[in-house]
């Protein structure tokens, strides 16, 4: 609402200024004022039409999102949950193998190296 009031106040102020500073005859000035307001009216009409088209586009976009995005997201979520359920036993088995490998590596680290072993007796 503030924009509309400001727009009208600006148009009125511009008109008064033009009338006060004009160096033209009455009929010429009347024609120019009429043309100015006609152009202003056309501009306001175009803005209204653009706003209506924008509103329709937003409504269309909202409908498209509701009809395509929401079902797609539900389908993706369902598939991810199914994937996680089906792969859980495999992931657990892999985790156990990794733990076994880590234990084996730890046991290797605990074994003495060749430098730390006692030499074998010679016969």
TrEMBL record:
Pfam families: YtxH. Gene3D superfamilies: 1.20.5.300. It comes from the Bacteria. This is Gas vesicle protein. It comes from Lacticaseibacillus paracasei NRIC 0644.
């Amino acid at each position: 609402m503030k924009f509309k009031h400001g727009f009208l106040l600006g148009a009125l102020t511009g008109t008064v200024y033009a009338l006060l500073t004009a160096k033209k005859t009455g009929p010429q000035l009347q024609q120019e004022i009429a043309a100015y307001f006609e152009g202003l009216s056309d501009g306001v009409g175009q803005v209204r039409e653009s706003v209506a088209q924008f509103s329709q586009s937003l409504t269309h976009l909202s409908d498209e999102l509701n009809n395509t995005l929401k079902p797609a997201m539900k389908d993706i979520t369902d598939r991810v949950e199914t994937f996680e359920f089906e792969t859980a036993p495999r992931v657990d088995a892999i985790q156990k193998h990794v733990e076994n490998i880590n234990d084996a590596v730890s046991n290797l680290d605990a074994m003495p190296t060749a430098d730390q072993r006692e030499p074998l007796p010679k016969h």
